[in-house]
Design brief:
Layout lengths: L11 H19 L11 E6 L5 H12 L3 E5 L11 H11 L2 E5 L3 H9 L5 E3 L7 H15 L6 E5 L4 H12 L3 E5 L8 H11 L4 E4 L2 H5 L4 E4 L11 H8 L6 H4 L7 E4 L11 H4 L6 H22 L4
Parallel strand pairs: 1-2, 1-3, 3-4, 5-6, 5-8, 6-7, 8-9
The protein binds phosphoric acid mono(formamide)ester and norvaline (NVA).
Amino acid sequence: MKHIRSLLDLSIDEFHGVLDLAASLKKQLLGGERPDLLKNRTAALIFEKASLRTRVSFEAGMAQLGGSALFLTGDVGWRQRESIGDFIRVLAEYCDFVVCRAISQNTINELAAHDVVPVINGLTDESHPCQALADFMTMKEVTGSVEGKQLTFVGDGNNVARSLLAACSMGRVKFRLAAPAGYQFKPELIQRVKNHAKWVDFEQSDNAAAMLRDADFVYTDVWTSMGQEAEAEKRNSDLRPYQVNEQLMQLAPDHCKILHCLPARRGMEITDSAMDSPASIIFPQAGNRMHLQKGLLVWLAKQNGLI
Ligand code: CP
Ligand code: NVA
C-alpha cells in the first residue's frame, strides 16, 4: 500500500505525476468543472496540533471530488482509550484515507506500518510533505519551468525547510539555507535526500547576502514551530537578523518572489511590507495546498486500486 510518510515515499516520476494531476484538476476547477473522482470516499483527518490550511484544504478538496472528510481531534482518545494499531485498523474499516498531523514523525510511521489504509502526513516535527509539494507547484506556475531556479529559505531550518529541500532536489531546484549555526541542516538529512533524488544543489550559511544573491524565491516560516514555545525567547533573539523585510529583499535579485507557508507572525520573521508587497505570492501559495492535495488524493486512490 502506498503512503505519504514523507516526500521520500515518492519516486521522481511519481513526484512529477502528482504535480501534473494537481495542475490538471486545478485547471478543471478554474473552468468550472469538479469531477467526482472520489465519490462516496471518506478521509479521516486526525490532528494532534492546530491547523487552518491543512484541515480546510483537505476537507474542501474531498468535497470538491465528491467525497467527504471527518475531522478528529484528541476526543477520539487514541493512545488513551486504545492502541494506535487498534485505532488505525478500525478507521480502515470506515475510511479510504487517513491524514494525520502528528507531534512526532514516529506516529505517522507507526500508522503507516499497519498498512491498512493510505496514510498522508499532514505535518510532523520532521517534515511537511504536502506543503512542499504545493510550494513546488506554486514555483512551477510562476516560472513555467522551475528546473535550475533557486529557492533560498531564510530562518529556522525546520520541518517545512527539510521537506522543501527534498522537493527542490527531486525537481532540480537549487536550495540555499540562510540560518545561524544551530538552525542549519545536519549532514545526514542532505545525504538522505541525495541518495533518494540522486541530485542535490545545496548550500547553507549564516551569511544571508551570499545565500540570497541568486535567489528566484525567498521563503520563510515562523521562528518557533508548534511545540517549541519554551524556546521562543532564544529563537527570537537568534533569528532576528534573518527577518524577511525590505532591507533583506534588497540582497536578492529584483524579480525574486516571496513565499511563506503560513501562519505568519507579522513583525517577527516577516514584515507587513514584505508580506503584502507585489513580490509576495503567499496567498496563491496557500490556495495551492488544496489543488495539490486533490491531486495527491486522486493519485493515491489510483495507486492503491481504489479507483
Ligand atoms: N501551512 C500550514 O500547514 O498551515 P496550517 O498549520 O494552518 O495547516
Ligand atoms: N514550522 C511550522 C509550520 C506550520 C505550518 C510548525 O511546525 O509549527
